[in-house]
């Protein structure tokens, strides 16, 4: 994809020699009922690196750096080891000793070993970039806190809680030294914010669902892990100077899709414990068939068979299996399920947390209304990496639709989709390109509209298309958010298998033209709830809808020229016509009229 990048520019930041930081006299400690964790000085804080470059001695003055320096609390336990397929809970044991656990990840799918990986074979990040152990006792968090938060008379700081993506099947808080560190956004707020990221269960261990799981286990366990992390913030973030009344949930892809599901939890009857959110490419697939022996139960039994427990309902057998066995079955599930670019597992209707497909609940007003402001974004070429190979003709297209909406009862809905997209007319018979549009609308961009429609007076919308519409691939907006330099951006791109020369050109152009103001918009949003507090042009208006059903005043993050960098314009990828169509499909597949009452009202 990046071979089509036609940008130029050479900008090399100096490579700085590693300096020796003076040790602070007293590193802060966070005290929890189940243990203590001591901070460490973040030696990769961009401000420290900047001052290191001009430091004439080998020893940096701690006091000189104090106001612009980060502490990191690593691997803080926020839950005890959960029972397999059970809820996560705060630890009940007490411990007054200092803790220093190693970084760990929850059980994840290794997409490098998959025949049909979600997201394709060129993921946003190197699948081997996380060098940490995968275990089931994995519910730990990292917390980046400015030194100034511990100074006398310091005010309380806003808190970002990051929920990482990964197709609801992979990912970790520990993804090397670039992703999910929070350094760039904290620096952009002038060291006036706190960044927290925590693990959650994914794949089969986090998102197996269905009628049997509703009776014997816990569907959507990964969402409960995220909720416990947010509850932890409410209970303990004041120890590091955080303001529990100014919490912003941020996430990308499955992380943003998770945020959406927190907003509709129990039909909006449950406070999600955040006041603002930034949803980047919110992604999920409709997963609703929790009838006895339905599609979700079929996934459960398939997983059970792969784990050696037979094609049957026996959760105790799965709980007795060792971790290696259930991890291998998780890996095998993603190869066995005929995914064709779709996610085998993810948030699913369970009758409790998720009572219907989210687009339906949002349209019915059954969501949390206490959101103060939101940034909702998508990339301009979301689905290119998710489009399955081998879609060459109408027969292939039809076969995908059967996988997407299976069963004889959904024949009419598949026909509706085929008629609405009319591939011969709209894409000249290019069924692969046509299917790419179907996936984009159904899985990604219409979710941005549904969120906008829920919060129309509080939503700032973004279409990220740097450097061209074609290279605005899913996830590339993470690069200006999590990189501090050309070198970091280049390293990030090389992890995506981009050739070094092309990565250098793209990275230098991005860092010069887009990244500075991009991060300023977001920093202002963190501190004030509005992206317009940093004096960046243009003034980012809240989006509005035209009479023709098009969103306008959308921030278009575009090319390298000054006139193209940031513009307010319209968005043709989440039109009312298209997203109303997918909302109609959702109501039909669950046999639920738009004005259906919630379970609490019955």
Automatic annotation (TrEMBL):
Location of the Carboxylesterase type B domain: 66-558
Keyword Aminoacyl-tRNA synthetase: no
Record carries keyword Lyase: no
Keywords, ordered alphabetically: Signal
Signal peptide positions (record): 1-22
UniProt xrefs under Gene3D superfamilies: alpha/beta hydrolase
Protein name (Swiss-Prot/TrEMBL): Carboxylesterase family protein
Annotated source species: Metarhizium rileyi (strain RCEF 4871)
């Amino acid at each position: 994809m990046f071979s089509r990048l036609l940008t130029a520019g050479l900008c090399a930041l100096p490579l700085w020699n590693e300096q020796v930081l003076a040790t602070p006299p007293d590193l802060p400690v966070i005290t929890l009922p189940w243990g203590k964790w001591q901070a460490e000085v973040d030696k990769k804080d961009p401000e420290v690196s900047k001052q290191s470059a001009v430091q004439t001695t080998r020893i940096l003055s701690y006091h000189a750096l104090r106001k612009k320096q980060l502490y990191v609390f690593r691997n803080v336990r926020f839950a005890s080891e959960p029972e397999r397929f059970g809820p996560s809970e705060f630890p009940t044991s007490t411990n007054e000793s200092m803790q220093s656990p190693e970084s760990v990840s929850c059980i994840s799918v290794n997409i490098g070993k998959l025949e049909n990986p979600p997201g394709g074979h060129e993921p946003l990040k190197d699948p081997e970039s996380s060098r940490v152990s995968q275990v089931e006792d994995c519910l730990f968090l990292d917390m980046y806190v400015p030194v100034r938060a511990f100074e006398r008379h310091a005010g309380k700081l806003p808190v970002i809680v990051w929920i990482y993506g990964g197709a609801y099947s992979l990912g970790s808080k520990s993804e090397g030294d670039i992703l999910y560190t929070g350094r760039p956004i904290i620096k952009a707020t002038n060291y006036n914010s706190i960044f927290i990221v925590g693990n959650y269960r994914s794949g089969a261990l986090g998102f197996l669902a269905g009628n049997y799981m509703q009776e014997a286990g816990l569907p959507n366990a990964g969402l409960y892990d995220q909720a416990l992390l947010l509850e932890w913030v409410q209970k303990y973030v004041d120890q590091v100077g955080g303001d529990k009344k100014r919490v912003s949930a941020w996430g990308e892809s499955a992380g943003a899709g998770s945020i959406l599901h927190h907003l509709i939890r129990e039909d909006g009857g449950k406070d999600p414990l955040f006041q603002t959110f930034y949803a980047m490419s919110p992604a999920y697939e409709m997963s609703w068939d929790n009838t006895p022996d339905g599609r979700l139960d079929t996934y459960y039994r398939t997983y059970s068979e792969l784990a050696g427990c037979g094609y049957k309902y026996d959760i105790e057998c799965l709980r007795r299996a060792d971790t290696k066995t259930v991890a291998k079955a998780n890996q095998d599930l993603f190869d066995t399920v005929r995914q064709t670019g779709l996610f085998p597992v993810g948030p699913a209707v369970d009758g409790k947390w998720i009572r219907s497909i989210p687009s339906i609940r949002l349209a019915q007003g059954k969501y949390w209304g206490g959101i103060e402001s939101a940034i909702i974004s998508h990339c301009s070429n979301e689905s290119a990496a998710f489009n399955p190979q081998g879609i060459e003709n109408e027969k292939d297209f039809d076969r995908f639709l059967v996988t997407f909406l299976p069963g004889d009862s959904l024949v009419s809905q598949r026909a509706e989709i085929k008629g609405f997209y009319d591939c011969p007319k709209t894409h000249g018979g290019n069924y692969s390109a046509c299917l790419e549009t179907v996936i984009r609308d159904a899985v990604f961009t219409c979710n941005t509209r549904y969120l906008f429609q829920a919060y129309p007076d509080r939503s700032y919308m973004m279409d990220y298309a740097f450097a061209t519409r074609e290279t605005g691939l899913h996830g590339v907006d993470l690069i200006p958010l999590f990189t501090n330099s050309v070198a970091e951006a280049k390293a990030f791109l090389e992890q995506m298998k981009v050739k070094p020369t092309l990565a250098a050109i793209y990275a230098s152009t991005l860092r010069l033209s887009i990244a500075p103001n991009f991060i300023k918009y977001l920093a202002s949003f963190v501190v004030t709830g509005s992206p317009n507090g940093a004096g960046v042009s243009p003034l980012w208006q809240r989006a509005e809808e035209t009479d023709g059903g098009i969103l306008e005043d959308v921030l278009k993050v575009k090319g390298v020229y000054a006139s193209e960098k940031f513009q307010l314009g319209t968005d043709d990828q989440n039109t009312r016509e298209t997203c109303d169509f997918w909302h109609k499909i959702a109501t039909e597949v669950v046999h639920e009229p738009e004005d259906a009452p919630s379970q609490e009202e019955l």
